[in-house]
Input
Amino acid sequence: MPSTLIDDAGRLQQRWTQLVSDVTPSSLPLGSYAKRLTSSPTGQLNVRLDLPLIQTCCQQCDVSPLSLVQAAWSAVLRLYTGSDDVVFGGIGLSRPSPKQQWTNTSICRTRLDPNSSIVSVPGQILEEGLPEADCLLSVPEAMKAFSSLEPKPCNSAIWLRGPIAKNDLQTYILNEGTVSIIARRGSGG
Output
């Protein structure tokens, strides 16, 4: 499997490089605060979601909970970067592998209209990963691929944890209510 992983990482990096060649980096200002929280270059924040509020909003606006979380994260990055074109990683957002130690990865790019509302953002998110189901990387490998891109497009990712099937994705978020936001320290990557 290691040779497949190297090939997959190379292909993924090449595809992502094409996708982000013209973006302004979407980096959160982590600085010394993140260094005090952990000795690891990757920090993780578990966000408990207000499930009844999210469920109501999703039903009223006809969007999935994951789409709403992605849209909200796009808005956060827009606020910090000042750019209408933001990028973040997505880990475990699509159909997972039967091998639980591997997770799928993608880059999510959102081009926001200056007057767009959060509920209109899901239709503007472009998510790009490897299409083959057997091309999966570990979370550290995904973050390494993110950080090796030039220009460095982002230093954060949404990580949906847990063994779920694609059809159960909405149910999982509504029942479990935890999404992890991970960010990598360093110069934007």
In short: The two ends are 26 Å apart (CA to CA). Confidence is low (pLDDT under 50) at residues 1-6, 32-38, 97-102, 163-175. The CA atoms of residues 28 and 137 lie 24 Å apart.
